[in-house]
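Table S2 (text version). Query chain:
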Amino acid sequence: MKKTAAILCFLIVLSCVPTSAQRSVEAYGFIGYTGVNVEDWAGTGFPLREYDQFNSGYYLQVFPYANELFSVGLEYGYSYLLYYTFFNEFTTVERNVDATRLLAMIRLFPQEKIFFEGGLGYYFFDGFSDFTVGLAAGYRFKVLESLSIPIKFRNNFIFDSAANIIQPGIDIGVAYGF
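Corresponding structure-token output:
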């Protein structure tokens, strides 16, 4: 109980320190859920034996341009989206679905520590790519003058011809502002 209270007090103190930089380089890790009808998306023609829609990954964001209201940048990352197995006529087939992604990003700052993001880009799967829209809301905890820990709730909408995918999750990162 004392440890939890100490951590909570530490986070409250961090949230009171003003942040400054909006131009930044940021690295994130995330976890979430892949929302899709897996049988429709897989398109195997066979019933699925098992599947898992837990997703995770990491990405890097760079925001080289900023003014008082917004920043513009790029995002590049890796996403593990889902796993499924099915039995065809001869054997059990296992598939891990992952992709790299590249998005053009804009970040708005209605307050100094609160931010909203939007991005347009593509997920690059094995042999094909899908258009995506990413939306997020986040909060930055300042650690040092140029260093903060952003936490955001994010959802990527992946537009696939077989079945559209939603990818909600929580992202935690480290940001260096300049």
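Notes on Table S2: The mean pLDDT is 87. The beta strands are 24-33, 48-52, 54-66, 70-87, 92-108, 114-124, 129-142, 147-159, 165-177.
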